[in-house]
Amino acid sequence: MANIKYTVPGMSDADAERVITLLQDRLHAANDLHLTLKHVHWNVVGPHFIAVHEMIDPQVEAVRGFADDLAERIATMGGSPKGTPGSIVDNRTWEEYSLGRGTTQEHLGALDLVYQGVISSYREGIKELGELDPVTEDMFISQTDKLELFHWFIRAHLEDKGGSLSTEGASSEEDAAQSAS
Ligand SMILES: [Fe+2]
């Protein structure tokens, strides 16, 4: 519970507290994602190293920007954004990224699953925010638009000329990494 003392005009405290909870969940997801993407940037190896290494950094920067916008929206609504590493680990509902040094295809396969999880959760949030707060919904929609674009950048490396994904049906990052390589 956010325990707010004030919020934006025209919104009940109860609604604001729910919106803050949704924002905080996305803040943890964005902080986790930009750190994970940087980890991939550092750990990819193989013949396509430089292309993938350099593709990742603009994604890191964009997702760091998403985190900043989410956190400032929490503060705007009267909440207190949590951005410490411990709070991410304590509150996240997903597992730590599982690959260390790996080929570009292995990491791209695993990132396909990472993006699937993050984007699906954004869409859940959008559904709920349509009623609760269209202003926050708009932020979620614009961030999802970019995340889906980045996901396509990943998937274009995993797609054959018939349009099939090598990671189709993979249920874990390891599984996806193996299918992709
Ligand atoms: Fe770098």
From TrEMBL:
<dbReference type="InterPro" id="IPR012347">
    <property type="entry name" value="Ferritin-like"/>
</dbReference>
<protein>
    <submittedName>
        <fullName>DNA starvation/stationary phase protection protein</fullName>
    </submittedName>
</protein>
<comment type="similarity">
    <text>Belongs to the Dps family.</text>
</comment>
<dbReference type="InterPro" id="IPR023188">
    <property type="entry name" value="DPS_DNA-bd_CS"/>
</dbReference>
<feature type="domain" description="Ferritin/DPS">
    <location>
        <begin position="21"/>
        <end position="160"/>
    </location>
</feature>
<dbReference type="InterPro" id="IPR002177">
    <property type="entry name" value="DPS_DNA-bd"/>
</dbReference>
<dbReference type="InterPro" id="IPR009078">
    <property type="entry name" value="Ferritin-like_SF"/>
</dbReference>
<dbReference type="InterPro" id="IPR008331">
    <property type="entry name" value="Ferritin_DPS_dom"/>
</dbReference>
<dbReference type="Pfam" id="PF00210">
    <property type="entry name" value="Ferritin"/>
</dbReference>
